[in-house]
Amino acid sequence: QVQLVESGGGLVQAGGSLRLSCAASGRTFSNFAMGWFRQAPGNERELVAAISYSGGDTYYTNSVKGRFTISRDNAKNTVYLQMDRLKPADTAVYYCAADRAPLWDLVTIFESAYDSWGQGTQVTVSS
Questions:
Q1: What three-state secondary structure class fits 16?
Q2: pLDDT value of position 95
Q3: Exposure pattern of 19-33 as b/e (b: 16+ CB <10 Å)?
Q4: What's residue 106's pLDDT?
Q5: Which helix (H) or strand (E) holds 83?
Q6: Predicted local confidence at residue 37, as pLDDT
Q7: Torsion of CA 32, 76, 36, 6, to 10 degrees
Q8: Strand, coil or helix: what is 63?
């Protein structure tokens, strides 16, 4: 099992920015596909962004395209989510997750394929 620890959440005004980080334990992070999910009260958890193990393939849900950027530093065992031009609708608990056995160097889209999860970090965007 891999441990994932998110940081960087907080309270920000609409239009502002935050950068979330997710640090992973272990030596095999560079083999994992990674994803950022979010869950707002009353809503289902949704995939916000995903990145393949090399970083060469990325995915964004439509509502964040052009505003969020996912990246990773395999030397630091860390994946990031840069969030710009934040909106109140982005308010949620954000979770990072790892797919430890991706078949190819492509993003993992299906939530069921992620087998390790962080504890979550709260992002609140005020209007």
A1: coil
A2: 98
A3: ebbbbbeeeebebbb
A4: 96
A5: strand 78-83
A6: 98
A7: 130
A8: helix
Tokens at 10, concatenated? 């907080």
In angstroms, the CA 40 to CA 123 distance is: 10
List of the chain residues with pLDDT < 50: none
**CA quadruple 16, 111, 105, 23: dihedral positive or negative?**
positive
pLDDT computed for residue 26 by the predictor: 80
Give the C-alpha separation, 120 to 105, whole Å: 25
Give residue 27's pLDDT.
79
Residues in Cβ contact with 66 at an 8 Å cutoff, skipping those fewer than 6 apart = none
For residue 15, what are the contacts with CB-CB under 8 A and spacing of at least 6?
85, 86
Question: Contact 74/31 with Cβ under 8 angstroms?
Answer: no
**Calpha distance 34→99 (Å, rounded):** 6
Long-range residue pairs from 43-51, CB within 8 A, at least 24 positions apart, any chain: 43/92, 45/95, 45/111, 47/109, 47/111, 48/81, 48/94, 49/81, 50/107, 50/108, 50/109, 51/79, 51/107
In this structure, is the dihedral angle defined by the CA atoms of residues 71, 103, 114 and 112, taken in order, positive or negative?
positive
